[in-house]
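ok so I'm stuck.
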Amino acid sequence: MATTLNPARPFPGAGVYPLDSGHFDEAFAKTGTARPPYVAVMDALARQDLVELRERVRSNIEGIGLSFGPGRPMVVDPVPRVIDAAEWEPLEAGLLQRARALNAFLLDAYGDQRIFEDGVVPRRLLETSQGYEPLMRGLLDPGVPPATVAGMDLIRDVDGELLVLEDNLRMPSGATYAIAVREALGRELGAPDATGLRSPDGYVAKLGEAIRAAAPAAHAAEPTAAILSDGPESGAYYEHERIGRELSLPVVTPAQLSQARGRLHAQVGSNRIQLDVIYRRLDEDRLTDNGGALTPLGQLLAPALESGRLRMVNAIGTGLADDKLAHAYVEEMIRFYLGEQPLLRSVSSYDLSDPEARDEVMGRLDELVIKPRDGFGGHGVTIMPLATEGDRRKVIGLVRRRPERFVAQELVPLSTHPTVIGASIAPRRVDLRPYVVSPAAGEASVMQGGLTRYAVAAGEMVVNSSQGGGSKDTWVLDIGRPDLG
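replied:
not stuck anymore, here's the structure
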């Protein structure tokens, strides 16, 4: 029997769950009936004391040590996001297609630059992007995808279609957080039969294979690799440590590195080891400054990269594809490099450096989202309809003076998802970040699930963990309705 939710009456258990026609709800149709994958989840929640359920999950998180930065335990909601196989399969194909095209773009941008010569993407993207590293031109191995790991941020529009909001190819974080969230939720709510629920656990092993496969040919048999991190102060240090532990890779900081005769070495305990591959999880990603001089990081890494004795996962310079201006052209990249039509649509973005695009949107900036091209983690984003009058005027002034620094994007109201708030179930905005691993050898693969992030405050549209957002488990089901205990 289908679970029905009348928006005007309490949800079984506690609270009132309002439905709003202005956005899509992941669990409930507009009629108040639970969508098929959620029927058993909602029934299971109705049998739970929600406060106790949340506390058990919180205790599990503390036991795992899951945190986002020092002293900041991850906020995890016990209500999982559910995606059935019928929706996941085409989504997976679209993610793989997008990763292939973006990797082709990066290899081209640091190689022949055909896409710029043909006018498909404007050359000003290269000339003005903070993510472009000129020193890397000609240094990328065409057999090694420069963005070995890609994370795409997906949102649903009001009709339920999943769209790509942003592409993350510099050093996407969160994959092991998704695995840890699955561990923390465990069987607190109950879980589907093992044959019905796909596991994200194979991700770390595939990442390890991809890291080692990126090694220079002379060291491919037994490469020495390490994770390069900012150390315990990094917001994602839990992930660095966990990957290092599971793959038996040392986690090192720049202070532990030295270079000599075109080789990079790391001091690990009492041992000085030569590195063949670095899995890069460092915030700094420039080898040269704006004047072309080597940065301190460039002084360490450039000699080994130029000698061909070092490879990086992800490569330095992949921030070019993180540029919000690049996002505006990804669908054209798919057509140009793959000769295919995009399987996943992007949220429409506008190149404010292009006079025609700028003229098209300047009269309606108040309706759009304005983003700095080099921003990340939601920082600097202005959702114009929700901004104060003062903030709107300030942003419009900045865009008029320096349009090349910003992009405009259509505002898509994020979908909502049932979330435990106090002793009740309430809707909170969510997005989804799945992960694609593209190794030098073998086929690319997508983590089964990904990290669902939610905004803790009602109506909030920014879900990033760095700004206080929480996380949810993401279930990919081979069956339409799970059997929960």
